[in-house]
Design a protein that fits this description.
By secondary structure, this protein is of the alpha/beta class. 30% of the residues lie in helices and 24% in strands. The chain has a single domain (8-313), classed as Metallo-dependent phosphatases (Purple Acid Phosphatase, chain A, domain 2, 4-Layer Sandwich). It has helices spanning 29-36, 85-91, 108-120, 172-182, 205-217, 293-305, 316-340, 342-345, 347-362, and strands spanning 8-16, 54-59, 62-63, 79-80, 95-97, 124-126, 139-143, 146-154, 188-194, 221-225, 233-236, 239-242, 247-249, 259-269, 272-282, 288-290. Helix 4 (172-182) runs parallel beside helix 5.
Length: 370
């Protein structure tokens, strides 16, 4: 295949969640879409994907019809009405990964409904395997003279008892085997990995080791997500590893989690991938807003500095302790957030939240957050 003179442009963002979190029920992303329309979440970053051959994000929500007034509370959060997909289309996002720890939350039917909506709008997806519907993890996109193989994997433990599990579980050997089998079919291999721990701004040494091994095995770009916070980006052997792209559209309120970015990559040839960081901040209406002026310079420098925290020899015990501290800090903030927003929930939602907190205490689970 003849490659275009301008190379291949890939823009990548982090988590896209078009419903409401339990802690933002009635005023989260999904509620904003219900009030203002499906384009609302992307209104402040229009045109950012213009010129991108591939624009990809992690779709951490199902697109599945529900009734917010009559359905049980647990069936309404982290779930988007199907028309929310129009926002993805208008924004220019043409590929998503579904390999994440929430895709199975509402059962098999909701996942298949999501896939049907994506297919109907021409949005490619990766990260699920369901041969009965001819859905495969590998998605090959032909763009500007390049054959690009997209693969998605979820390293996180299964949270929901759904059989069969159709999101693709990640493992070192499986991914290396998949890369080997795909290499002869494509020019570029892009891995989307749902991995790591939440709220910590650096990967573990094991993640760094894995990321570099996947590049050594033949991958060209690795896009990480799940932590909800930005982590460093590195060029390794002329290729790119983004350990966490953070959130892009999400109703998490904590300031560090609202810092976002668009990672724009230019593939000039198979051994030369360069990137640029476009900084953004998620506002209080849950919209990513492109940073401007001095704010953009400051935030971009801050994001670039995260690369100094990438360390394959990082002490695992110290990393785990930091994870525990950040998780504790966030969970304390969840209770504070509920108290500050009591007036916004309404009686039905408050009752459902109270029941959930009591149930979580009995079963020693944490309050619903993300």
């Amino acid at each position: 295949m003849t490659h275009g003179n301008s190379g291949l442009t890939i823009s990548a963002v982090g988590d896209i969640m078009l419903g409401d979190l339990p802690a933002c029920s009635g005023f989260g992303v999904g509620s904003m879409i219900a009030k203002y329309g499906p384009d609302f979440p992307f209104a402040k970053c229009k045109g950012v994907f213009t010129g991108s051959d591939i624009a990809i994000g992690n779709l951490e929500v199902v697109l599945s019809r529900f009734n917010p007034k009559t359905d049980p509370f647990a069936k309404t959060h982290l779930r988007a009405q199907p028309e929310a997909i129009e926002g993805l289309v208008s924004a220019g996002i043409n590929c998503v990964t579904l390999a994440n720890n929430h895709i199975m939350q509402h059962g098999m039917a909701a996942v298949l409904e999501t896939a049907d909506h994506l297919i109907s709008k021409g949005i490619a997806f990766t990260g699920i395997e369901y041969p009965d519907r001819d859905m495969r993890n590998l998605r090959i996109l032909e763009k500007n003279g390049f054959r690009v193989g997209m693969l998605g994997y979820n390293f996180r433990p299964e949270q929901y008892t759904v059989s069969p599990r159709i999101d693709v579980a990640g493992s070192e050997q499986r991914i290396c085997n998949d890369i080997e089998s795909v290499r002869s079919q494509v020019d570029i291999i892009v891995l989307s990995l749902h991995w790591g721990e939440e709220f910590i701004n650096r990967p573990s040494g094991e993640q760094v080791r894995l990321g570099r091994k996947f590049i050594d095995s033949g991958a060209h770009i690795i896009l990480g997500h799940h932590p909800h916070i930005l982590q460093g980006v590195e060029r390794y052997r002329g290729r790119v590893i983004a350990y966490s792209l953070g959130d892009f559209v999400f109703d998490l309120w904590d300031e560090p989690l609202r810092k976002s970015m668009i990672l724009r990559m230019q593939v000039r040839n198979v051994n030369d991938v360069i990137y640029d960081i476009i900084p953004a901040v998620i506002n209080r209406d849950w919209q990513p807003v492109l940073a401007e002026g001095d704010d953009a310079i400051r935030l971009k420098k801050e994001i670039e500095q995260l690369a100094t925290l990438i360390d394959p020899d990082a002490n695992q015990s110290e990393w785990e302790q930091e994870v525990a501290r950040e998780l504790h800090r966030f969970r304390q903030g969840v209770y504070s957030h509920y108290l500050k927003n009591l007036h916004r929930f309404g009686i039905r939602r408050l009752w459902a939240i109270a029941q959930g907190i009591v149930s979580n205490r009995i079963t020693r689970k944490e309050p619903p957050s993300s």
